[in-house]
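Re: Re: token formats

Sure, here are both.
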Amino acid sequence: MKIRTYLRGIIIILLGVILLANNFQILSWGVWYELLKFWPVILIAVGIDLIFRKSSLSFLQILSPLVIIAAIGGAIYLSQADRAYEITGQALRFEQPLSPELKQADIEISFGAGILRLGGTSTKGEFRP
């Protein structure tokens, strides 16, 4: 079997792994938006394939699937780059009345995994993060 056949199989497997990761919420569906930005890569890969198909440098046809695999990797990377700004829609509100004598408070928050955004305001007699 030719190496190109293996690489095309790897591309199909990668696409399947991405879909599986989407279904299990390991990757966001935004990866497909990022992958769509790389549509010119398909033209580049087809061009590489056509140029080197019947030349003495036919071993360079391996570049065609490698370019596509690189585009898939780039799309996955770009879809995860802004993951810290994902909106989940889940919010926890915490309010605690404080005595007027209290000038400062330390708060310890412990959670297993996730993203924490802490903001708040304070008014006389209470602290709200």
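Second one below.
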Amino acid sequence: MIGYGDRARTQCEVVRLFRETHPDLPPLNQGTISKIEAHYREMGHVRKVPSKRQAVVDDDTKLNLLLALEENPITPARQLARDRPFFFDDTLNGARYLRLLQHELMPVLCHLFPNPLHPNLTDERLWFQQDGAPPHYAAIVLQYLDRIFPGRWIGRREV
């Protein structure tokens, strides 16, 4: 159920009401309504995102996060994910994700899980896992993971 107008309505009712209200527009289907509803539940609004991406977080918030990290540079891995988000000025792609792995994540992992024989690598008992987002399986990322975590990473392996 989603709210539409003056009360909560089913998706079928929303589709019917849209057709009645906007007969000159192409009809909506329930899949479209489901996507709009999911976006609303996740984001709290249904406005379209402008084609030029705007910063999701303002500069003051970024500065506060960085200052907090400066105060406590040795942060447990779970807190790292919670307290230190990474901001990209543009859409994440394979090259940007690789730089994130090389310059942000690996130094932290090498510090938290040191390898006495190879200081630039993590402990050989550590496994790395990522989901199937397109930047995660760019060829340069897969080659890097194969080199840094040989046989010890989980995720899509084909391009």
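Helices lie at 11-21, 30-43, 59-71, 77-83, 94-112, 139-148. The radius of gyration is 22 Å.
- S.
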